[in-house]
Amino acid sequence: MQKPSINHSFQYPGSIGEMPSGPCADAGVLVEANAGWRVFRPVLDAAKCVKCLKCWLICPDGAIDRSGKDYAIDYAFCKGCGICAYECPTKSIRMEKEGDDVE
Amino acid sequence: MVNVRDLPERELLYGHKACPGCAAGTVARLILKVTGERTFLAYPASCLSTVTSIYPQMAFAVPSFTAPFAATGAVLSGMAAAVKAKKMQDVTVLGIAGDGGTADIGLQAVSGAVERGDRILYVCYDNEAYMNTGIQRSSLTPYGAATTTSPAGKAGGAIGEKKFKKNLFEIMVAHRIPYCATASVANIADLLGKVAKAKDTDGPSFLHIHAPCPTGWGFAAERTMEIARLAVESGLWFLAEYQDGRVTLNYRPKEFIPVREYLKTQKRFRHLGPAEWNVIEEQRDREWAVISGRWEPAGREKA
Ligand SMILES: Cc1ncc(C[n+]2csc(CCOP(=O)(O)OP(=O)(O)O)c2C)c(N)n1
Ligand code: SF4
Ligand code: SF4
Ligand code: SF4
Ligand SMILES: [Mg+2]
Q1: CATH code at B223?
Q2: Which among A1, A27, A31 has CB closest to B64?
Q3: Which residues is B19 bridged to in the sheet?
Q4: Is the pLDDT of residue A102 over 60?
Q5: pLDDT tens per residue, range A53-94
Q6: Tell me: the pLDDT tens digits for B90-120?
Q7: DSSP state of A89
Q8: Where is A87: in which H helix or E strand?
Q9: Closest residue in chain A to residue B64, using alpha carbons only
Q10: Can you tell me the distance from the alpha carbon of B293 to that of B301, in angstroms, rounded to the nearest whole number?
């Protein structure tokens, strides 16, 4: 999946002197995931999925990954809104309570 | 028409902090899939700016500029002038702004940019209030919606917003803009096709996109697309486009579903009853009579 990766080595400025100056900053910079927002987690059943692309199109976070053989969900950035599960025409995505089963 | 299978895999908006289920997230990422990497983006103060550029994160992967709240149109004009001066080819100068930033405070700036004829693509994602600052009403807030500045109250009998939603599309049509359209996340194919047309327009183009907001409207995040569909099916949102001097209604439900089926899905309308539903239905019918009369000359009516 083509997307910016998290820069785990980012150091926050330690003092005002280390703050970047000027109006410009790099684009496509991520330093943390959004995974902690989820209460429910979408689980995609690849055997049922017909790859219609609907979930990929409508996900507000772009967290459906269509690059592999099967579609997959980027759990680092999925917020668990449930839109994909609600809209999937083949009911291939179900929402599971986070923490119920630890993979 | 855009073939969705041809859309690039690359996400040019990723890792943003919008609420779960935010339609504005879907709108912005899909637009960027069509306009592509060679996009210069400007957005004013809004949910979109707040959720994408929280230091040190920058969720847009294209060059972008945070415009003063009122100035998106003017900033786009400046960007278009720079693109011209640098003789850059195949670049989209894109603005994405909220309903407040477009129909209220930013209206003169976008009007000026359109009137100047600059090659820009301006998108208004319409979540029907000033969401970023805590749900204040705008001129695109619909009748009956409770916001923090148009509260509903049992004691005083306040019904929420007392005025009807302004027709922003017709304001743009009145500019005789080369291309403008309304769209909704309820119909992604229609939306993508309109973005592609707007991108290819040699001059200004404008899209007004209905973007349900779970937080401000009060509904469960999973229902965003369904709420958008109900708005279209109840006739409270219309899909239309204007090009070559002619408006086309892209979709006309065979029969409108009752407005209450849309209104009852959201907390902001929950205080309304049959009397207000009637007012809303009558206004809807008046509005459709006006737009059909204006846009669908006899003969084209029964398409
Ligand atoms: C001149 C000015 N006035 C007020 C504000 C505060 N402000 C920031 S965002 C915002 C609301 C934006 O509403 P809208 O354009 O509808 O976008 P949304 O947040 O709903 O996405 C306001 C009032 C500001 N940034 N600048
Ligand atoms: S919406 Fe359902 S069937 Fe379509 S691609 Fe997604 S998971 Fe597969
Ligand atoms: S639950 Fe929401 S954020 Fe997660 S993949 Fe589905 S649509 Fe995207
Ligand atoms: S308040 Fe509404 S528009 Fe703003 S980020 Fe949340 S869901 Fe999106
Ligand atoms: Mg708004």
Answers
A1: 3.40.50.970
A2: A27
A3: none
A4: no
A5: 999 999 999 999 999 999 999 999 999 999 999 999 999 999
A6: 999 999 999 999 999 999 999 999 999 999 9
A7: T
A8: helix A83-87
A9: A27
A10: 9
Q: Please name the helix (run of DSSP H) or strand (run of DSSP E) that holds residue A54, with its range, or none.
A: helix A54-58
Is residue B9 assigned to a domain?
A: no
Which amino acid does the sequence have at B147? T
Domain coverage including residue B212: 15-302
For residue B141, tell me if it sits in a domain.
yes
Decide: A44 in ligand 2 pocket, CB within 6 A: yes
Interface residue ranges in chain A relative to chain B, Cβ cutoff 8 Å? 1-4, 6, 10, 12, 25-34, 37, 53, 57-62, 66-67, 77, 79-83, 85-87, 95
Spans in chain B with pLDDT lower than 50: 299, 301-303
B64 touches chain A (CB under 8 A): yes
* Residue B262: inside a domain: yes
Choice from A43, A45, A48, A50 to test ligand 2 binding pocket (greatest atom count within 8 A of CB): A50
Is the reported ipTM for this assembly greater than 0.90?
yes
The pLDDT assigned to B303 comes to 44
Residues B45-62 pLDDT 10s: 999 999 999 989 999 999
Number of domains in chain B: 1
Query: DSSP characters for chain B?
Result: ---GGGS-S--SB-S--PPTT-HHHHHHHHHHHHH-SSEEEEEESSHHHHHH--TT-B-B-S-EEEE-TT-HHHHHHHHHHHHHHTT--S-EEEEEE-HIIIIITTHHHHHHHHHHT---EEEEEE-SSBTTTT-B--TTSPTT---SSS-EETTTTEES--SPPP-HHHHHHHTT-SEEEEEETT-HHHHHHHHHHHHH-SS-EEEEEE---HHHHT--GGGHHHHHHHHHHTTSS-EEEEETTEEEEEE--SSPPPHHHHHTT-GGGTT--HHHHHHHHHHHHHHHHHHHHHHS-TTTTT-
The whole-number pLDDT of residue B298 equals 60
CA distances from A38 to A15, A42, B80, B212 (A): 33, 10, 40, 20
B201's tokens: 């327009």
User: Does residue B7 form part of some domain?
Assistant: no
